[in-house]
Amino acid sequence: MQVLNFGSLNIDHVYTVSHFVAPGETLASSGYQVNAGGKGLNQSVALSRAGVRTLHAGMIGKDGLFLKETLEAAGVNTDHVMIGEHPTGHAMIQVEKSSGQNAILLYPGANVEIKASDMRRILHSMPQGSWLLLQNEINAVPFLIEEGKACGLKIAVNPAPCTEAVRTWPLHLCDLILVNEIEAAQLTDMPADGDFRRMAEAMAERCPDSEVVITLGSRGALCRSGKEEIMVPARPVKVADTTSAGDTFTGYFLAAKLRGMDTETAMRCAVFASSITVSRPGAAGSIPSADEVFRNPDFFNQEKGKYHA
Description:
This protein is an alpha/beta fold. It is built from 10 helices and 13 strands. The chain has a single domain, classed as Ribokinase (UDP-N-acetylmuramoyl-L-alanine:D-glutamate ligase).
């Protein structure tokens, strides 16, 4: 089984700060790094490191060739990474030193310049039954969902960042929908601090053929499939950087399912992998390898509701 990830490729400019800069404030950062990033790239790296054959499709500018090299170093097939005339997408990321939380300003660049003809060509090159993974950092995602479904692909979507346009997407065609609590609230017209179980129920009613997963940060994750609900707790760790937590979860959850794990085990795997990611700084570079997760004794020693550190 293989996954085609039609996703973003960004250059991340990461600033370590004492607090997030306020309007009108000038703030000096205590650290600066340039990293490979983008939700698409990070999720491809997570999938590949989890042991799944991964193909990445997307577009970069001539200034982003190292992003392609980053994917290849992680074992990702880059035959469908195109080089266009627009600058590569980039992100300005503030990481608060005390908490590891981040604030991100995104410039899409080449990510939103992909032609429909190229999308169609790449989708039709995939064998039926393959998975198509999508986020909301490239253009024409609704077209990709509909065309991918017509090609006989299984669709997984992480509609982040969650814009108003996402509400009009044909999410009911997706086999797997992964969101965080804020995105779930936006899609269900509920308050962000509301009942996440009601959010999951509302999304499942809208998309009855989809498996809906809501990540809850320090509270773990919830999966809703029809009327069945599974809740998995978080693994307590000291947080260094949350930048790639959600991307790691997405990649490892889908990979675990493709490796034959049931939904609850796949969720525990994804939560465990994400806990490793947030414990160290960086984006793609912080995503753990398969051995760090699947051969980690702490992963095998889990009991329901407990983690043995």
